[in-house]
Amino acid sequence: MIHLGASFEIEFSFTQEQVNEFCKISGDFNPLHWDEDFAATTPFKKPIIHGALIASVFSKVMGMDFPGSGSVYLKQVSEFKRPLYVGQTYRAFFQVASINDLKHTAEITTQVFELERGKLMVDGIASVMHPTLF
């Protein structure tokens, strides 16, 4: 049963191979994500992970872990505060911010932190529905 204040966290990282596969799946071949030489000329200095690939971690958690199987992921708002890089480990943190019992929905904060220094990388909120968990 999900309740106000309930939380969940998961560590994740992506390899360059996974980023390259996401380029193929999404059609987003922006060289900022896969071309080291190009990325070196940008303020980021190396390839960065697609924001949508990072958000896929949220989708996995909402559908499989928290609230879990049977959930419908209705909405996501995200602010990407800092770039995320291949090979670094991050911590995604989720917390129930509000519940609407009548609609069987909840708003869940979605945050990503750099594991090493704890810096907030992505800040957001999601809406989910699950007819039996609330």
UniProtKB/TrEMBL annotation:
Lineage: superkingdom: Bacteria
Residue stretches in coiled coil: none
Domain named MaoC-like: residues: 8-112
Gene3D superfamilies registered for this protein in UniProt: Hotdog Thioesterase
Protein name per its UniProtKB record: MaoC family dehydratase
Source organism phylogeny: Bacteria, Pseudomonadati, Bacteroidota, Cytophagia, Cytophagales
